[in-house]
Amino acid sequence: MASAVTVAVVGARDQAKELGRKGTSSDITLYNAVRDGHAVTLIEPSQFPEKFGSLLFALAMADRILFIVDALGREVAETAAAVDLFDTPVDLALGPSVGEAELRRAFKGTRLETAPAAPLDYPKLRAAIDGWAAPPSPGEVVVRLDHAFPVKGVGAVALGVVRRGTLKAHDKLRLYPTEKVVEVRSVQVHDVDVASAAVGERVGVALKGIEADEIARGQTLAPEGSLRVGTEFAAVVDKPCRYYKGTISEGLVGNLLVGLQFVPVQVTHGAGGGPVTVVTDRPVALVPGEPSYFADLSAGPGPRIAGRLRFEAP
User: Fold this and answer.
1) Which of 5, 17, 50, 196 is most buried per CB count within 10 Å?
2) Domain of 288?
3) Residue 287 confidence class, pLDDT cut points 50, 70, 90
4) Model-level pTM greater than 0.85?
5) Is residue 134 part of a domain?
6) How many other CB atoms are found less than 10 A from the CB of residue 123?
7) Looking at the structure, do residues 168 and 118 belong to the same domain, yes or no?
8) Tens digits of per-residue pLDDT, 191-227?
């Protein structure tokens, strides 16, 4: 494709169907649109707020966030708390019952207070999205996988988004955090065979050397030696959630989003606001420099997102 972008559509429910054709659906639902060589993948957190991870997955997969607000309430407030921790560009679309001044007051002190906002208008949104593109991300290829299935005569096919570099047919890559090395038989972008796929493109990848049931969401295709794998990491609380009632400090138990891996975690050392040590219940793979997100799923009043972490160099 000439250009591509992956967009998280959050806030109001069931809005992405107005902007693309429905595709894969689980706790996240994906919609696709291809116009004039521009490929758009839209992701809705279809099981949020029941499953908080659904929202985090959608945000983590996105190059851009479309936050549609048709009413102010607890669900929108929790979405805003999570979006505030991501650096991904965000655009606000306002339903007819929501005034911009009211919205700015509700989001005061967050990056959403100054985010671009416009009335909800689907034709104008489609035109705007056609001008969006994933930012360049050079370097060794990184593909985040979110679904997989077997195809008769082909074998295992994994679905995901290219987050860095360029994916090419016949690449030999490690399936992190496992030690398995696989070969890319072929690559498709929106059901079209391609020789390579760039950042922001959603891909279907036929893989040699693995079965579909060995592939899980959160696994990452990348060259051997390019990612860090472990269960214990030193980190800093890069940005605490301003609305979370607790602190990310020793004794806190929750879940950590690392890439698309959402795993149980415990803070074993450190006080709120300073360096901490976290231990996950299974190995995770880190892309150097990428943030991770701490969720407290047992939080009472207030959001379940606790803050953003950045891991220190080993």
Assistant:
1) 5
2) 228-311
3) confident
4) yes
5) no
6) 8
7) no
8) 889 999 999 899 999 999 999 999 999 999 999 999 9
